[in-house]
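Entry 14. Ran structure prediction on the chain below.
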Amino acid sequence: MTVTLTKRADINLQSVLRVAWQGEHVRIGESALQEIARCREAFLHLIDNDPDVMIYGVTTAMGELASTRLSTEERERHARIKAFAAATSFGDPYPERVVRAMILARLANFLEGNAATTPRIALAVAEMLNGQPLPSVASSGQGGAGEILALYPLFADLTARFDLEVKERGSLINGSPCAAALLADAALAARRRLDLAERIMALSIEAFRAPMEHYDRALDQLWGDEHEAAALQGLRRLLEGADTERRNYQAPVSYRIVPRVLGHAHRAVAAAERAANISLGSASDNPVYIPPDGDHPYGRCISTGGYHNAMAAPALDDLSAIWADLCLLCDRHASKLLSGAVSHLPDMLMVGRHPSDSDGHGSLGYVPMATTGYLEQAKAAAQRTFIPGTESAGAGQDDVAATAFPAWAKEERAGRYLDACLASLAVIASQALHVTGRRAPVQLAGFVREVREAVPPVGNDRVLGPELARLTERFTQKVFTP
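Output, structure tokens:
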């Protein structure tokens, strides 16, 4: 399958899923190539016919030399510079799906002529997604004002293969395609992680026999929020056919607030999806070319702050925060299920402890201790990302750094810690059904079988760590499998 791109709006979450996650190829439509060529011609007319025009990196030098006007000959030499001294970041590389998303997002600047570059460069960028080996992009050390520390190495080979013309180098390394790609990657994973969390929360509710009134249909209207209504509806769907013998008094707070917390998760995921779609289709180049209109027959080229995506980090931070909150619910649910005085479940069978054992825990009894550890790690990862300043000597104009890179790293960690907490709670809830001889509701039956394939019900004490790790890895694979 091949994704055809004709306009910026064609680059969205769906195309990231297809191209970055599922590995489909890309082609640029003929109408888009014609528009790219038209804007390139108009741009050249602009710089050739306006002797006073000041365009960063085109008619002027870059960085601290932005005030230095270049002659026509100097422009050509400046355009062909192939030095990549800025490619200084190193460390663990981003996953291939993220690199593919960055390349796809880069094409947004080209499709409607806003990069003012030649069609050959747009075609070369698209071709990188059609089976070529991809360059490595470091996930650490990304502290630049824009994204050049990631974009330089991403397009280094491409620029080495071409004799670049004016504006082409800047159109590859300026803008915020990385922020758009990172946000899109997190949003795609978040929707799947939320689905997983809903299933495990519903399983825990059933294991605890929490009253169904906590999730009643009337609350959809009483609370008046579309996202909380979606959470309530999802829980009711998963609990269809649930055991009718339930406690006749209210469950602990951690069970009653599940739809509220899941509702906020729906809200955070929806916000991330919206921000991702806007960012992916955004022309973020600096300077950005505005095609010709009635007042500007050659178009305009203006300097902007488009390379600073201010919506990405807050959206990523909100995802990190809700993952930490859900870790907390996993911790509380696990502890309540294992406490016979609260859950009315048989203590000794729940912990996998034989009645003759002298110790009071058993292997399942220690699981919440591990959950607490993952909870604290998730909370640490969920600290807000503030805009960092750049204090390095010689930073010149670059006095503020981009935020999406560290925010994505924290969200990615928080999400994986949640996977571990969800695995722990799933095992305990599965055990509760096992020891009481109950079946899971029909919508959860297959999921319980999956859980028990990785971690069979506990009869006698055994080392559960490797089994929980295996289940956690399965959950993470579910989140990221195309």
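The chain has a mean pLDDT of 91. Will compare against last week's run tomorrow.
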